[in-house]
Amino acid sequence: MNCPYCGKEMKLGYIQCRDGVTWTLKKQLVSSLSFLGKESTSLENGAADNSSAVYAFKCDDCKKVIIDYSKKGNRSNKY
Fold first, then answer.
1. Can you say whether the dihedral through the CA atoms of 42, 21, 27, 1 is positive or negative?
2. Tens digits of per-residue pLDDT, 60-69?
3. What is the pLDDT of residues 35-71, one digit of tens each?
């Protein structure tokens, strides 16, 4: 995948968290319970059998990380 900011090739890797990777509208008091947030979104995208790891692209030049959290199955074959 090319970086949408600078156009250079991004590296595919993982972001990992013990209790699942989620995005929340507000910072949670206890991050391990962030999935309980009112407007939380699971970022699970097929990188693991559970939600503890997600595929993510990293741009070393722009210092940006992009996570596609659509449920498209195994990313290793797609990218």
1. negative
2. 999 999 999 8
3. 555 677 888 888 877 778 899 999 999 999 999 988 7
Nearest to 47 by CA among 20, 9, 8, 11: 20
pTM over 0.85: no
For 45-55, b/e burial (b = at least 16 CB within 10 A) is bbbeeebbbbb
Range list of H helices, 1-79: 75-78
The residue type of 40 is: S
Two structure tokens written together for 57: 């692209």
